[in-house]
Amino acid sequence: MIVIEKALGALFAIWYQWQERKARRTLAAWERYDKQGRLKPRDAWGHEIDITREDTLFANSEFLKRTDEEDNLGLFAQIRRSQEERRRQAEEKMKRSASTFYASKEWRKLRYQAFKRYGNTCCVCGRGPKNGLVMHVDHIKPRSYYPQLALEITNLQIMCEECNVSKSNKDNIQWR
């Protein structure tokens, strides 16, 4: 009988501690709500924030001022200017790299070999310098898309200026 009383006493103590924990959690939960039954605002660390209605209205009005249509237009203009600047810088870089490439000793040597190998007539229209045309050495696969083929003689063809300009930056398959 004494053993049962001790076991019941221990069981009651555990039950009583559980009830106290439950009551503390319930009170803590109630403290998270204001008088209107809404959750009280808290910051990222869980600390309660005291916000009045006037603070909220002021913050909203400031936000609305900042997102005014003129500011948005200014933002769009700024984005557009930065995109234009990046595009212009990329074009300048391409022009510099093209002028450096075409002035290189390797390109001039390869250009000479292409004229020697393929002749001095346009591979498209068959005309040449005898017809008063300026001849170009053209990359079949564009150098901008296939930089690894830039100095391959098998990627070169002789074209008159007119045919080369009409071909532009396309490869033979796209152009024809």
TrEMBL record:
InterPro entries xref list: HNH, HNH_nuc
This protein's UniProt keywords: Hydrolase, Nuclease
Domain of life: Bacteria
SMART domains documented for this protein: HNHc
UniProt keyword Transferase, yes or no: no
Gene3D superfamilies listed in its UniProt record: 1.10.30.50
Protein name stated in the entry: Putative HNH nuclease YajD
Organism (species): Kluyvera georgiana ATCC 51603
